[in-house]
Every structure is written in structure tokens, then in C-alpha cells.
Amino acid sequence: MSFSCDAIIFDLDGVLVDSASAIHSHWQSWGDLHGLSLDRIMRVAHGLRTVDTIRRVAPHLDAEKEAAAFEAMEASDATGLVAYRGAASLLETIPSASWAIATSGTKPLASARLAHTGLPMPKVIITSDDVQNGKPDPEAYLLAASRMMLPAGRCLVVEDSPAGLKAARAAGMTAIAVATTHSAAALGDANAIVGGVWDIRVSVEPGDRGAASSALQVHTSTLEKA
Asked: Are β-strands 99-102 and 192-194 bridged in parallel, bridged antiparallel, or unpaired?
């Protein structure tokens, strides 16, 4: 299956960077400290900002204070972080003005993970520091489109979480899900589901590869229709 768009907006964790072991380890340590089970935390954590996860699982705590400490710990620990296979080569095929990242993590965390895994920093990156409302609210994706000076309907999102997919669809964007952290059955808000970024190919329509208006054709393999 193929999709046409002017830009692709990627989530970071679970899409470009395999951070599952690091995320589980950090939440395990935090949960142990506060008497909360990892299972309870992970039922809501994927795709949400740290502060929103803490508000849900531990409303009695000072969420902003806890999130700041948690995110500082995450940014300083790169243990277990790797880029997903195919991530670097996929990004290399897309004009630099035609892709962005919208993540629920902070700017320092996203920058650290991109640097550690050797992935490039996009011209546009939206983090939890830039929005008032985290996913599943569409604010992050709408802001990314705005900063790329593109209509939301001409942007395609690659996501791994139900919350992120809801955000993309609420923004009016086509959404491809990667089944890296959730089963296909949990990703029903996607237009298409693939195994990972290694199942996505992008071709650029003839024209100026540096222009944000370059038309992209996004091709998927091992596709499951949502």
C-alpha cells in the first residue's frame, strides 16, 4: 500500500529508537520507590508525557516535581538504547525539510537519545516542553505541521502507541502504526499497521529535494490494514 504526503512526522520512542528496556527499567525503579507495580504503570505510560503518567498512577504525588527528576534520570542513562534497524537509512531518503519528530519526552531526553543512537536531529522537533496538552491531544502534531508550514492533512504520522495514533487522527493526519510495543489489535486507529520502520520505504517526487513541498510516496510492506 502507498500513501502520498508532503511530510512525515515520527514519534521517537518505539518508532525510531528502541528504548523499551530503558523505559521499563526507569519506571521499575520509580515504581519500587513509591510502592507501585510496573504493570500498573505500563498500562498507561506508552505514548503519554511523564507528568501525565504520574498524574494517572500516583495522583497523590507532586507530578511536576516527580516528572522533572524522572526525566533528568532518563536523559543521563543511555543503557540499552539502540536505533531500530532501518531507521537511519529511512531518514536518509527523506529531504531534511520533509520530516519531523513529535515526542512525549522532553527536549533534553530526545536530544540525548538521538545523539546516542546516531540518528540525525530534525529541523523540527516537538517535545513535551512545547505543548500544553500531551497525546492523545493532537496539539503536538498540529504544532509540528504548523512549524513545517504545511496543512495537517498533508502530513503522515508514524506511531507505536494508541495514544499517539489518536492524536494523529484527531489532527486529521494519515497514521501508520508500527507494532513494536503494542499488538496490532491495539492499534486500530491507524490507517495501516506494519512491523516496524524497516517495513516503510519513501520515494520523493521529482523536484527540489530541499523543498518542504516535495511530494513523498510512502510505501509499506508486510501490511495489515486497520
From this structure: unpaired
Dump pLDDT digits (tens) for 41-54.
998 888 788 999 99
Tell me, rounded to whole angstroms, the distance of Cα 96 from its chain centroid.
Answer: 18
62, 7, 6: which is closest to 34 by C-alpha? 62
Residue 171 is placed in which grid cell?
489532527
Backbone dihedral region for residue 176 (phi beyond 0: left; psi -120 to 50: alpha; all else: beta): beta
Q: What fold characterizes domain 20-76?
A: DNA polymerase; domain 1 (1.10.150)
Neighbours of 75 (CB within 10 A): 17
Q: Cell numbers for 98, please give them.
A: 520533509
Q: Annotated catalytic sites, by residue? A: 11, 13
CATH value of 2-18+81-225 in 2.102.10.10, 3.30.1460.10, 3.40.50.1000, 1.10.10.10: 3.40.50.1000
Domain positions in the chain: 2-18+81-225, 20-76
Interval 159-168: pLDDT, tens: 999 999 999 9
Give the Cα separation of 56 and 60 in Å (integer). 10
Q: Where do the H-state alpha helices sit in 35-173?
A: 38-45, 50-57, 63-76, 87-92, 107-117, 139-147, 162-170
